[in-house]
Amino acid sequence: MGLLDLDPTTGEAKLNPDILAIPAFEEIWKADKTKVKAKAMKEITYIYMMADFNSPYAVFPVVKREPEVRKDVLGSKDAKLEKRVVEGIKKYKSFQETPSMYLLEKTKTAIYKMADYFETVDFNQFDDTGRPVYSAKDVAANLEKIGKIIESYDKVEEKVKKEVKSESRIRGGGTEGQYER
Q1: Same domain, yes or no, for 108 and 73?
Q2: Averaged pLDDT, 109-124
Q3: pLDDT recorded at residue 28
């Protein structure tokens, strides 16, 4: 169990009791004065969906992930985030993010930017001298490279998933048991 785990029956984040020892999460918990802690759980679920590598929203780059998670978890793409939630995201990421995870996230963002570039290509667009802005030859050459980029991304993603899985299975420096292999 990590800091937060998604409960498949409710779709909400379930707290590891140790989490309240961390000031950022304790502040979220204490800010919700109700007994059921619905607001705190929504905020913690938001943190999980935004920051956890295993979140269903992790497939999106951050710029596309954030409005979707706000809408789905907080009820509106325009929902205001409390400062404590932003701090909770930073803290949660610091507990799980490795250099390879960081690099993977930045690579994902770059791939989406490339896709946006290809979406804006217009072969009928010309510069001030009357030459085409986009050369079909250059675009075709770039498209050929996309396959290699995606293959490389997939390899890094698989490595990160294995890294996450191995780190989540052995806690506190323990060794892998005979039945955990």
Answers
A1: no
A2: 90
A3: 94
pLDDT, one tens digit per residue, over 52-71 is 888 889 888 888 899 999 99
CA distances from residue 96 to 12, 28, 33, 132 in whole angstroms, order as listed: 19, 19, 29, 47
Nearest CA to 45 out of 22, 23, 21, 75 is that of: 75
**pTM metric for this prediction:** 0.67
2 & 60 share domain: yes
* Whether residue 114 is found in the same domain as residue 145: yes
Do the Cβ atoms of 72 and 60 come closer than 8 Å?
A: no
Least Cα distance to 10 among 42, 35, 57 occurs for 42
Task: Identify whether 179 is part of a domain.
Answer: no
Residue 16: left (phi > 0), alpha (psi -120 to 50), or beta? beta
